[in-house]
Design brief:
- By secondary structure, the protein is α/β, with parallel strands linked by helices.
- The chain has one domain: P-loop containing nucleotide triphosphate hydrolases (Rossmann fold).
- The chain is about 45% helix and about 10% strand.
- Strands 2-3-1-4-5 form a five-stranded parallel sheet, with helices on both faces.
- The chain is globular and about 60 Å long.
- The chain starts with 12 loop residues before the first strand and ends in a 10-residue tail after the last helix.
Length: about 300
């Protein structure tokens, strides 16, 4: 089912977003058990391909650039966005091109949390699921990743890791006010642990899908949060599949303790102070109030 790029609205696309190390992969694997949901490895499509082009387009229209430079000298905004939309939909073809009526593709790139406005500008009917996790556990996980498999990207200082959490959560909240009704759904990592059936049922309802209780329970049982490279397989294609095989193999340490409140034994008093200093106000706004005396 190949959509017309100029008419495609993203109505069969759902983006899972959140600060990295917030449980987005776990939610993706759980949702992928539903017979109407397809998924794949994270694309970073807006992070590295679409949003940078939109940013440059907007900046080059600024009068400070000699009164305007760049492609705006050759295209109107409508023309440019039509070309960019066609490019976007063509890049999405391996994901949405084979979907049958009623099926949904779930795209999971955590950092797309920073580009929700761009996503909806080009795909106005796409849906967003935000995974929110306690920043203390998120920071502990980021710092652990920075010392092993995530050394190329994960921050290794609690101050910087806390800033990442604040940046992502703030970006989602800023975009949330402009997201049409029925297109945004937020879950908490802690609730996914404590009441997975309720959380997944809520996600299915949000997506307009029915999920039989027995099948839902089977999805939970087969996707233990503590098991690496187990449960629902995430398929690969393209050049990566040619080089490495057609199934995602996450590095050792990708899945850690996968529990709630692990920060209490993993973070030093210094680590906790930096998180409190950087994130205490956004934490409180997100429902994670943390008075200084509880450090």
């Amino acid at each position: 089912m190949n959509p017309n790029p100029f008419e495609y609205t993203g109505n069969n696309l759902t983006f899972i977003v959140g600060c990295p190390r917030s449980g987005t992969t776990w939610l993706q694997k759980l949702l992928s058990c539903h017979p109407k949901i397809r998924s794949g490895q994270e694309t970073h499509l807006f992070t590295f391909h679409i949003s940078p082009q939109l940013r440059e387009w907007r900046e080059h229209l600024d009068p400070k650039y000699r009164g305007g430079i760049g492609l705006g000298c050759y295209f109107t905004e409508e023309e440019f966005l039509r070309i960019l939309k066609e490019y976007l939909v063509r890049l999405f073809q391996p994901m949405i091109g084979m979907l049958q009526p009623g099926e949904i593709f779930v795209e999971k790139t955590p950092s797309h949390a920073l580009f929700i406005s761009d996503i909806l500008a080009l795909l106005p009917e796409a849906r967003i699921i935000h995974v929110l996790r306690d920043p203390r556990d998120t920071v502990a996980s980021l710092m652990a990743a920075s010392g092993t498999w995530g050394s190329a990207w994960a921050p290794n200082h609690p101050r910087d890791a806390a800033r990442w959490w604040v940046e992502h959560v703030t970006a989602v909240e800023r975009s949330r006010a402009n997201i049409p009704n029925g297109q945004f759904h937020q879950i908490r990592y802690e609730e996914l642990h404590s009441t997975p059936e309720g959380v997944l049922s809520g996600c299915a309802t949000f997506l307009g899908l029915k999920w039989e209780e027995e099948a839902l329970r089977k999805a939970i049982d087969s996707n233990d949060a503590k098991q690496n490279n187990k449960g629902t397989p995430i398929k690969l294609g393209g050049e990566v599949a040619r080089l490495r095989g057609n199934m995602t193999q996450e590095p050792d340490g990708f899945v850690r303790k996968a529990k709630v409140g692990g920060w209490r034994t993993e973070l030093s008093l210094r680590d906790r102070f930096w998180i409190w200093r950087v994130a205490r106000k956004p934490m409180a706004a997100a429902g994670y109030r943390w008075p200084f005396f509880l450090l």
